[in-house]
Amino acid sequence: MTELIAFLSTGKGTWGHIAGLISKDKFEKIFLLTNDFGKENFTANEKTELIVVNANDDYEKLRDQIQSSLKDKVKGSEVAVNFISGSGKEHMALMGALMKMGVGFRLVVSTQEGIKEI
Fold first, then answer.
1. Threshold 0.70, pTM exceeds
2. Domain CATH number, residue 69
C-alpha cells in the first residue's frame, strides 16, 4: 500500500472526490493539506491526517511549509497524489516539496470503477 497526499481546498464538488478516494480504503495513510475551515469541517477517518497550511503564502514559503509538514510523516519513496481539489499554486508547491524530499509520485483519481492511476 501507499500513502495519499492531496489538497482539501477550493473547487465545487472537490471535497466529494477526496471523500471518494478515502472511502476506497486503498491507502496506508492519507495526508490532506487544507486550511482551518477544512480542518474544522471535513470528516476524516482514522487513516487521515489533516495538515493546515497557508495557501496565501508565496510559492516558496508554501512549498517549504508542505515539505516541513510531510518530511517525517511520509514513509515510502513514492506516494499517490490527487490534484482535483486546490489551485495551481497549491499543486505546484506540493510537487516542489515532493521533489525536494526526493519522493516520487503517481497521479490517482477516484472513478466509479475504483481508484485509477492517470
1. yes
2. 3.40.50
